Amino acid sequence: MRFPRRRHAWLLGRRAAKALLRQVIPGQPDPAEIQIENEPGGAPFASISGQRLAGCLTISHRANFGLAAYTAHPAMQIGADLELVEPGSPDFLNDYLSPVELEIAARLPESERSRWMFLAWSAKEAVLKALRIGLRADTRSVELLAPAAAQPGQWTPLCARTSLPGAQDLRLWWQTRDNLVLTLAVIQSMDALQFHGLDADLPA
Ligand SMILES: CC(C)(COP(=O)(O)OP(=O)(O)OC[C@H]1O[C@@H](n2cnc3c(N)ncnc32)[C@H](O)[C@@H]1OP(=O)(O)O)[C@@H](O)C(=O)NCCC(=O)NCCS
Hints:
The protein is α+β, with helices and mostly antiparallel strands. It is 25% helix and 30% strand. Strands 6-11-10-8 form a four-stranded antiparallel sheet, with helices on one face. The chain has a three-stranded antiparallel sheet with strand order 1-2-3, covered by helices on one side.
């Protein structure tokens, strides 16, 4: 990696992912035994002592912060994102937010508008990461439907919808920490749903 900024971000993400996996993987593997790699499309995955870890890992980095989330659940895809809320009006986001989101932004007091716009942007990235497609999809195909209030440091559900295939069962959460917004998207795959028949004589 030739660019120090990219190297720094890459390391922050790896550090967050390794710290998390160390806590949740049985046997608490040594960080040096954990390898974080990327699929050709960019999505991260972990290997422990050369063996690919099942489940879904997601990473984000911004400024001096790294965020990682992991689930071992075979039917869940997750995506996490971290954004720094910058002061002033983030006009560059106008092209990426949906008409509904822009309408909500316009109604908010100026003090809340910037955070809302970065939150909407972050939520899109989280969903697009959960789907493993990243910014190859139209960001307006994921939208937040209502203004959001959160207790600092606490995951709070968001009201959202998407027209993207494969994301019908979408749940989104967010939290604030100082001038950061964190989002987490969880998509439960209906393909993995299993029906178990009950062959028994039921009482009439
Ligand atoms: C994924 C993406 C939305 C990340 O947005 P970002 O705000 O720039 O960066 P974040 O710090 O929040 O996330 C970066 C991490 O997302 C993860 N990521 C990258 N592509 C991903 C994908 N398709 N699906 C899920 N996660 C992905 C990686 O772990 C990456 O960190 P790493 O490269 O250090 O491992 C965006 O970079 C993207 O869409 N990339 C793919 C599109 C692209 O770059 N195409 C170029 C030609 S193929």
